[in-house]
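Continuing the batch. This is chain 6 of the set; chains 1 through 5 are on the previous pages. Same settings as before, nothing changed between runs. Recording input and output for traceability.
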Amino acid sequence: MEVLNSLWTAVEHHPYAVIPPLVMAEGPAATVFAGSLVGAGTAGFLPILVVVVCADVAADSLLYLFGRLGARSVFSRFLRRLGLSHERRGRLTAAVRRNLPMVVWNAKVADLAAVPSYLAAGLARVSFPRFLAWVAAFSVLRAALLIGLGVLVGDRAAELFASPGSALVMAGALALAVLFVNLFVRRAVGRRRSEVIA
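Output for chain 6:
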């Protein structure tokens, strides 16, 4: 219980420092959680929006950088481990060259597609300013929507934030809900793509 109290104290007193690493690790769930902090009055909307977008763009930029380095043998093995096989690499880099905004949009909607998509953007040698502009624009949109969803949850569950245990359980439940929605969207997008290809 002492660990839970320490974690919750860190979140309560330093939300703007705790949220960025959470967003970099699991963007959508952490963003909804950040919104619930706004709804509970623990953090402000605009600062949380800025923190979430900056962390999200930083994580996406790191993936892009790894993709740029992907032609080197050490990084090539690393890319395969991240789900970017040689066949998938060719398909995704072609898609990125054809329509970067759509690839970034799909990666933001189905967060699980972000890793291979942004690696492919780096491999395709898309200019970084162009990549950054699309990622930042869609990150702001997604962050605002997910923070808004979190605000609704946090506003209704503000009394739960009084107890560290219940607050962290609620954060876990939010993370699971966002993960399940993410998986559902990814499967729906995958089915739609296979129907288009067939």
